[in-house]
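Hey, can you fold this?
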Amino acid sequence: MLRKLQAELSTEAGAPDPRQRQYTTAVLLTVVVATLLGWLLSVPDSVVLAGLTTVFVLIVSEGHSLRADLRLFTRFAPPLTLVMAVGPLLENVPVLAGALVALVVFGTGMLPALGERYRTFGQTFAAATLVATTTGVGSDQPPGALAGCAVLGTLFALLLRVLIGSDDPTRAIRATVAHTLTTPGPGVVADAADAWRTDGGVSWLGQVLAGAARFRSAREVLLAQAQQHSGEEGRRLRELVTRSDEIAAELATAVRSRVCTGLNQLARARPEVLAGQSERELPEAVRGINEGLDRVRAAVLERDTSPTTAPAPGGRRQQVLGAARAHLSLRSALFRHALRCTLAVAAGMVIVLLLHTPTVSTLLLGLYAVLQPTARDSMSGALERTGGAVLGVVLLAVVIVLVPYAVLLVPVAIAAMLLRVRALREDYRLLLAALIGITVLVRVGDLERHSLVDATIGFAANTAIGAAIALAVGFVSYLVLPGSLGPDVAGTVRSTVWSLSELLRSVRASARGADVRSALRAAHVLALRRTQDLSGLPAMLDASDTADPVTEHGARAAATALDALRRDLATLAFRPASEKELALPALRAVDELLGGDARHSVPDIPGDQAPATELLAGSLVENGLHARAAIDETLGHDEPWKSYTISFVRPERLRIR
């Protein structure tokens, strides 16, 4: 434990990290001072809400470069502050409180359609609304105290974010971009590109991403060729991949560094030289690997900080409208799950308003933990989450009964949350579990000591009631809502590939100068819906007794690769026309891959002046290669890259709606 703490307070090189230590010190001192002030001024609940506001704001406005995080702060912090200040006041207006909770749960359940940042905000905002509106924490405090503490909590979150990033504002985005050189798999470049655009699109990082995308696509081609050969030739190709990874890892270290005055011998090496194959005939993919690594080397040394070409105007608006058209329908898995969550929360809200006791405060949080908003169309693991929520509340209540002044665990819990913001962002279950624990600790203070045993039973019973509502609504919805039963892996994968083919060919036509705006919008809507359905399929297979591990793994791989491919295509669709033309070779190559073409090569993609498009083109090829392998696995082909034909026809002829 001590070593882990020392590692977290140190840099990657092992030296003490002054900013991280200042952050930890600021958190601990502020929590201690705030706890003392809350006790002296008799406003402990307001201080708790201030601490939770800080946690919520940090979750949604931390993780990128300082500049990008400050933009996210101005966008997401005001609604969180408002709901934390106003939510406790709605206890006396039950109709308004119920309407607000239902509206927020449904709206935030639809936000994942807009991207990862909005998914994180939606989950956090829903949790903040439930805590502020339904738990009763702070409901006895004056409005001025609530508003002041919420604002102070937000300002403290801003202070912490500036403190941790003031000495090196771009460290987070450099680490994200460097991640693409060391982590294989679909979607890595797409995620990094999203973070890079959010940061403002600095040229040298875009050049690194473009080089990394070309390196990764050539690497996947080389691995595919190695799978086709056995014996000495296969080992030779895999050795080239291993040496390429060693060079890329060294370059990733240079990308993460704040300054770079030169590269060591390994970072400047060639994979064929390290593998002792420079005198032999090499596959064309090795040239692509070297070109990608050369691009990274030049970008790391030059570090051009000018911004890249902006996307075509109106692109973001079209993406938002397309997401709305795709998912505001019962045919959308995302819409069905948002509706399921809303119905369950509405039923739980009625019970909360009827009982109106401190022990009912964990009902909705327990309900929401069981529903797992990101699980979409599945109740997979719901029974385990139910048992975990109830057992956790029981154990905590026992601690409260046996330990005097257990309420002092509240500031400890808030301090731990502030020091583990990244873990809370990555695991929503952990956030909800922490909120349930804090709610129990705060609300038990409203009860007399002699009734703590009754309170233990009450908290556990109401948490179980919330979980039972979630299970009941989830089960009934599977019987009523369309598309919830009988996961069809092969059919879902085929329909997703058909929709992506339509989007890809629309983008190709647009790049050639054709006016296909209407067809492009329609294809974008269809691809959004199909990839969303496919993304929910692995969770449905988890709950199925008939699904085998191979099918589940193939469906998960296909969902990740095809969704990353869809994101690249949607982004490319709204780049300037001159840049889309540069990506035509990549679009043609991916179209052939999805159609079952067994050939695999890295197309020539010019684009020295357009890194944003070149990284998209390289990412398209890589994700197309991953998708090809996943389709083969999902549809039951034993031989990798076995050629077969998927007949692409227009979706309306297949009656895909």
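Oh, and this one too while you're at it.
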Amino acid sequence: MKKILIALPGIAIAAALFFLIIPNDESPDIQALTDAMLEKKDARLTRLESVEDEALRKPLLNLVYDAMFTDGMELDFQAPPRNTAYTTARLTRLNDYSSIDELTEVFLANQIAATTYRDRSCVWPREPFTYPFHHRLTWTAIRLDNGEATELPNHFSGSSYNAEIEYSGARNTFCYRDPLGPDQPVPVALVGEFSVQLPQKLIQFDFSRSDIDQSQSKDGYTVTLVEANDFSYAIEVSSSNGELPSLGSKDIIGEALDETGKYLAHTGTRTGRSELYEASDVIVDDLIDRAVEGTLTEAQIDQRFDEMQNELNEKYGNRLHKHFFFSGSVKTARITLLDKEAKQTPFKQRLDLPIRNLARRQPAPSVDLDTLERIPTLLPVYDHSIQNKVELNADEMKTAIDIRQNEISTDLQYSALVTLYYPRVQSDRFLGIFDRYQKPGADDIVFLNAEGTAIDLPSDDPDYYRFMVSRIEYNPGRFPEKPVRLSATVPVVTTPNLTKKSHRRNNLPDGVRIVDNMIIIDRAVFKPASNNEPSEKTHLFFAKSADQRYLSKVTDLHFPRTEGPGVDVTYYNGLPEIFEVWHRGDTKTVEYQVDLNLEEPAPRE
């Protein structure tokens, strides 16, 4: 039987049902809608109990559960996210290169295969960055030094294996199931193929959330914003010639920006107009009625859905419809169409990657730099993560620190929380989330009642509230009075004295060498000055290209000596021309003031 209804993946169902039990004052009554959905499912199952024909009852049971999953998807569209999360623009890598072809060339040229096993019994492929277009990168074999090849299992699932190789999706590794003996052929290369249909043109459309039913036309396509709410939107795409646009599902990219201009993390996509689901739902009830009456045959089930599909195709068959969901408040809906030629031949390239030996080295009296493993990834790949502000001062914190309340927490002891989100800054490389905030003093966290008076709470009793890492957790149900406002002073650790010093290739410090795409640091010679504790991270090293752009790192190797410090080797995607040293300097603590009205925590079940 045809699967007309679209089933919601298990993880999405769980997420949807989780949201459904934590309603929000500005959202519809999700719990009531959930109860109605489950009641409808139970009623349908009860009616089907009277259908004795097993061949008829089984497909109808499947339709009932499919319909429930579809209802869950619709509730997902209505349930707002509890957490805001950001991402980078899907096509941001295109800004680094002159064309899509050049981006593809860099992506392929910087592929590597490596092993950390001395016998090379496990091999992992590494991509230099996330390729932004739908593609297929298939690894087919491990080539041996005797010219033979070991066939690899299908690796497009979590884990798989064949007679000789096991693939782990979690670690992205291909491992021989039996250890390789010293007399066996040695793995020397990973063989595969890359395939993609490259777009000829990228066509971008921007809508504000209020542009519902508005259309924009460019380059033969028309995009209409048909639905929008605070955290999602739906669009339709049509062609100027009236025919169905020749776009695949992956050729329509939906993104969202919030009021700060940052890209919101994408949480899901749904294809097809809501009429499809509404019509399917009506049909399910009608088919059950006919089955109970004894007037339905199994063949008529598919026939009825075919009729519905034909009706919808007649009405919407020349348009593509997509819903996009995001983890935050959408201000701008950004749609990018990947325009391709009809019947376009895919671009394909065979890959044969030498397996690089990155196994941990044993201590030796000296390090022979001439025997270093070469990983010749010479085309530049840039590190975008460094392009942030260096640090915040006290005034900037007032607007830059994001305060959110009552996000999802697994800790049931405290029903409410206030979380402080420090924006991404370069000093994060020295100060992790566990170091950024210090614990406030006993008198620095004050809860106030409706009259604005401080609520008297034992300062040494954690049952009322506590400070954890970056959040104040509290349980208003234990308070003698209802807390309506919070006043707190939180010490924030900063690095106002962070400095950077650059050294060009022809003027490097003693103990530092640049060889091809490697920066080699002899720790016995190069010792950045520091007055801090040895356990603290006080300095970092980076590589820049000739045009002053940070290069992304491939990997690190350490060569220990039997006596004294060893040698560090860092490989980069590109040719380093500048060796840059960051010194953290002394830290400074800033007193950050929190003063806000408290939101009602969501009820827990």
